[in-house]
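RETRY 2/3 - previous attempt timed out on the joint model. Re-submitting the same 840-residue input unchanged.
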Amino acid sequence: MKKIFLSMIITCACSIAMAQEFNSATHCVLQSDRSDGKLLSTRAIVQNLLEQTPVALAFKESFTTEEFGEWQLKLRDKVKDLMKHPTIRGLPAAQKVSVAQREGYSIEKWEGYPLPNTVMTWFVLIPHSAMQQTPAVLCIPGSGQTKEALAGEDPVVPKFKQQVMPHKNNMAIHFVKEGLIAVVVDNPCTGEACDLEKIAPAYYDYETSARVLLEMGWSYLGYTSYLDLYVLNWMKNFKPIRKERIIVSGFSLGTEPLMVLGNLDPSIYAFVYNDFLCRTKERAIVLTCPDSKGYRRYPNSIRHLIPGFLNNFDFPDLVAALAPRPILFTEGGLDRDFNLIQQAYVLSGQQNHFTFYHYEKYGEPSKRSNLMSIPKGQTIESYLDLVNVDPDQHYFKAEIVIPWIKKLLAEEGMGIKVSP
Amino acid sequence: MKKIFLSMIITCACSIAMAQEFNSATHCVLQSDRSDGKLLSTRAIVQNLLEQTPVALAFKESFTTEEFGEWQLKLRDKVKDLMKHPTIRGLPAAQKVSVAQREGYSIEKWEGYPLPNTVMTWFVLIPHSAMQQTPAVLCIPGSGQTKEALAGEDPVVPKFKQQVMPHKNNMAIHFVKEGLIAVVVDNPCTGEACDLEKIAPAYYDYETSARVLLEMGWSYLGYTSYLDLYVLNWMKNFKPIRKERIIVSGFSLGTEPLMVLGNLDPSIYAFVYNDFLCRTKERAIVLTCPDSKGYRRYPNSIRHLIPGFLNNFDFPDLVAALAPRPILFTEGGLDRDFNLIQQAYVLSGQQNHFTFYHYEKYGEPSKRSNLMSIPKGQTIESYLDLVNVDPDQHYFKAEIVIPWIKKLLAEEGMGIKVSP
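RETRY 2/3 succeeded.
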């Protein structure tokens, strides 16, 4: 027994010794160590290639109104290409599986069959106050979240119960309490759509399914947006919903399908984007500081990988293309990017349809960075600070979202409390 | 101190209890738990999609000679599409960096500039016996191997010195001792092409570079085969080499660029395939037994991912398309796949150009499995046994390769000892 403990202590001591030897801060930037400046390290070469990759469909502030309109159509076609949604006819109709009463609203569970041999489920929260033609929100969760977490229902996998601010993050409850119909989906691989996580794994495995999809030329986002679009189309035919007033609200990971749906479906009325606005290519370029073990990892996992995406656009471009439809950002980013999108809304004649808030910590202009480009060699912590992100305060900002939506619908004579 | 040890013991006890609860063997097959048989788990749905994915360019045993020729051209075009090699003009010429004498041969180090701002290096081992117009072998290492390991030189990263049978796995030495010129490349991310592995990480990180390449629509194999083709083309202009007698020899990971180069460049004379022959789609379909923690991982990492590859073909198809050029397999697989390739060689009129050996353990037909399809729900161990792989004996089989090459060249009046 003593021998075991001794060996544990030795192992710890060695790890500390090794950690002391490697100072990651001195290796944050990828660079050549040759006198001719050429790169020999593959990691440095591919990083350089990524930096040099042209972006075919970037939004340009110099666009005329006409060019902007043409660009939007090109961008839509390219999003469609990249998402590779299959066209399948003759699928059976969705069915209501159950209904239960909660305080002030009913919750229905539905299932649909978006692919052969496949079932997906979603919740519909209908306020007791609702009449026909009620505005509705499609709620898309973030990583690790489920439709149950967003709807305040018991979790499918109790060990994965929403731990982070559950009463702020139950997005659908906030909407239904204001008289809106809330439709809530799961992201693939989570909740009811998980594999063995119910009985064994310590976290949801998104990556293996993402990998299988990539192998057949698809992607996690392509698959997710296909399912979400299926539910969105179902919403348009769900009687209580006013199909011209469907809002898409995405939290964190859920902002990715939001951008895809927004570009593929011009009938979506408005958008709630609850995450910071990121230039993912820039993030990959500047986040080159190695971790404590010397690995210089990619900033996110392959569930975010869409081969060919960065050759065409980045998130701010996809958002700019949503103009003139109303959109709200609740968790900031760089003013540089918001100014770009602002210009798209100006071009589309609806400058007032674009609203953004920074994290409270970075609310004062003097307290936030206002960079036009981010220096290379960042750690995740330094990067987040430079793009004005306060990770501890990453939650669904009902306090911003609900007033914005109420005002938006009120302006159109569509107060969302449709009956007292 | 006591408290810490107690907490360690409690942690251990819990882990054991959890491990006992989950019996991976009872969950090896992905299946529906619904009465209608529909799948709800994303992992099961995407697995089902992969199974159903059509393969556009599979080799068919029913091909006529004419159809076979047409299919080879189509396959070549598709490989070209998927590999996405850039066309870059005006690159500077490769340069010899150093030369040293070894027993019976000289070793030159060269560097080339296959992309802007980029350098790659390779070794050329030239037997003292060589005259002009000597047959040559392009040697491509396996995972974790370097050109130094294959050439028996001191490693660039001493902690990663070839540990597994170094005197069998120094592929280039085997060739040069027989009078052939051996050209040896690194796989990207290893040896001289590594990043911080020289000072910190515990293993070569291929995956991050692969990820960066995938982000821009390329792939690790696309990039690797581009570099290897660059060196192959250099070989054709290297005076001592008889360019009509260039053999490509790949070990393990190196068999992937071998197949790509073989299909892209019809001038390659022959191939040494030192790995088992795998149907990678089948492997992904049947390897569904979860690990001890309940994760049902993909069988390999993203350095093997080429989006769209499996929609078109698999390894046996790529090999069948090499007919009638001589090829040797040294580490078996399923006779089912070898019979397929045999048929391609029959069609091409050169049945004797196709040679395969099984692992010794599976050499006797009675000792190996001869399945036409592999049942789902395998572990990696059960899978390897079913496809006749003896992982402990995975090494470069000089004892098979050298006699095969000597015979091949002798038959053409090209004994490889060009001077005594």
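Residues 316 and 337 of chain B are 6 Å apart (CA to CA). Closing ticket.
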